């Protein structure tokens, strides 16, 4: 696929998994991403996305896996994303464990998953 991410995807409020990775998507990740309240997994790496990561991504309180690597995002990681990492962030400890967050400042890359420590 190529071009912008289809706008219709932002209206699928019951969507749990979105794998948009390794396409040729361009343009921005729109603020509508924050309306996907049930989204648990978002893979949008290896595209040609640009612009800032929308702060609305912090609305995705069910999110436990996020990959936005190998794009051309600009700006800072939105502070709203940090609310997904706080100890009181909603998650099922038996299923998902505690959150882990990693950023690489040389390449706009975010990898977020819940991790069960040994």
Describe this structure in words.
The structure is a single chain. By secondary structure, the chain is mainly beta. It has a single domain (2-115), classed as Leucine-rich repeat, LRR (right-handed beta-alpha superhelix), CATH 3.80.10. It contains one helix and nine strands. It has one helix spanning 93-96, and strands at residues 2-4, 17-19, 24-28, 41-43, 48-51, 65-67, 72-73, 98-104, 109-115. Strands 2-4-6-9-8 form a five-stranded mixed beta sheet, with no helix packed on it. β8 (98-104) and β9 form a beta hairpin. The radius of gyration is 14 Å and the shape is globular. The model is unreliable at 87-109 and 111-118 (pLDDT under 50).
Q: Could you state the order of secondary-structure elements as H and E?
A: EEEEEEEHEE
Oligomer: single chain
Q: How many DSSP E strands? A: 9
3D shape = globular
User: DSSP helix count?
Assistant: 1
Low-confidence stretches: 87-109, 111-118
Helix proportion: under 10%
Keywords: Leucine-rich repeat, Repeat
Pfam family, one: LRR_1
InterPro entries: Leu-rich_rpt, LRR-RLK, LRR_dom_sf
Main traits of this protein?
mainly beta, 1 helix, Leucine-rich repeat, LRR (right-handed beta-alpha superhelix), 118 residues, four-stranded parallel beta sheet
């Amino acid at each position: 696929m190529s071009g912008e991410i289809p706008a219709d995807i932002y209206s699928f409020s019951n969507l749990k998994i979105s794998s948009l990775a390794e396409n040729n998507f361009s343009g921005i990740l729109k603020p509508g991403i924050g309306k996907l309240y049930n989204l648990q997994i978002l893979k949008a790496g290896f595209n040609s996305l640009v612009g800032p990561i929308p702060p609305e991504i912090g609305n995705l309180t069910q999110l436990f896996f996020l990959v936005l690597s190998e794009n051309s995002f600009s700006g800072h990681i939105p502070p709203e994303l940090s609310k997904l990492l706080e100890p009181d962030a909603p998650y099922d400890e038996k299923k998902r464990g505690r959150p882990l967050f990693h950023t690489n400042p040389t390449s706009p890359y975010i990898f977020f998953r819940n991790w069960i420590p040994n």
